[in-house]
Amino acid sequence: MRQYGGSQQQPRRYSFHAVIFDLDGVVTDTARIHSVAWKALFDDYLRSAGASGDPACAPFDIAKDYPTYVDGKPRYEGVRSFLTSRGFRLEYGNPGDPPEAETICGLGNRKDRLFTRLIHEGDVVVFESTVRLIHALAAVGVPRAVASSSRNCETVLRLTGLADLFDTRVDGVVSAELKLRGKPHPDIFLRCAEGLGVKPEHCVVMEDAISGVEAGRDGRFGLVVGVDRVGQGGALSSHGADVVVTDLSDVSPAVLDCWWLARNPGTKRA
Q1: pLDDT tens profile 25-75
Q2: Is 44 annotated in the active site?
Q3: 18-29+125-263 has which CATH code?
Q4: Annotated catalytic, 187?
């Protein structure tokens, strides 16, 4: 699998030319692990930062705060976004800050340490329905990419044995190298499409985060599928998803083709 690069492979049966999968929450259940790590980080910080009973220091709410402020965003932007919502202002620091540093980068690195420990302590759950769809797409020659804001994407793919299922990977490490903006900007999806040698308007994007479907919409991708694992289907639709499902168990290349044609009538099959 290439981190980023060209692919001239084209499907021959379907109206779309490639599919880009978000990792956390679509391919693997690492969104849950990320949310646990974020809660541990912020609850510890809030306990030390303010007086008991101060609303600004109320515990991090996974159901509310995680999708609103951090889900799908680059790590340091997630720190900044949530703390700003509570009225806290920290110096940005720099990515080399130790996890103990009271900076945005320091807290972000602390969260990464927590997440890394969690994924190595227990099995990362894979959504088998998504893996079946990826295999089905590969069988008919549709190129696949994986996109993630996480710098741990490669580690997760290696631990789960999924790395070889994708033609291109654009993650937090690649984003830093190429200075790509994080979601809701569409940069990582656009880079995936470029790496596959396919125009965005010919690509399907699979996303579970609000910021991710916004990125798919703003990048003018041909079809954005929202994967609703946590009961936020309405928000996914209103922020850019053309179709919302709770799982990909009933999704096949043929189903994607039907959705594509409903969204893009008149498309000629490749």
Answers
A1: 999 998 888 899 999 999 999 998 876 678 889 999 999 999 899 988 889
A2: no
A3: 3.40.50.1000
A4: no
